[in-house]
Amino acid sequence: MSDQLPCPVPAMSPEAKPFWEAAAEERLELVRCLDCSTVVWYPRGLCPRCGSRALEWFEASGRGTIYSYTVVRRGAAGPYAGVMPYVLAYVELEEGPRVLTNIVRCDVEAVGVGDAVHAVFERVEDGTTALLRFSPA
Length: 137
Description:
By secondary structure, the chain is mainly beta. It has one helix and eight strands, in the order H-E-E-E-E-E-E-E-E.
């Protein structure tokens, strides 16, 4: 099993505030462009595909698959120092975007590309919100 990972307080931009508020309630909120239908990750004030500012927030399924991953076994710094091994992965959400995240609550040796995962939320150190991570489905 992967050890409990640190949960440092993230930097929060004003554009991402609804994401962090939903994460505090253990919900995954994403942004969709109303002009081209692109689902945007990481939350921002304009669509990276067409440049539109016509965006809406919606509750996502929280389901996805592992697109790519690595098992970190050494060399981590900062709050992650000494917390190895752990899985760093790109998860492709059902809604389309790929999210750089951790796979938790798993055997790090059993993780594989294409594995189904679901969103889990782990409370940050100061309790203000929670970090989006994923666990095997």
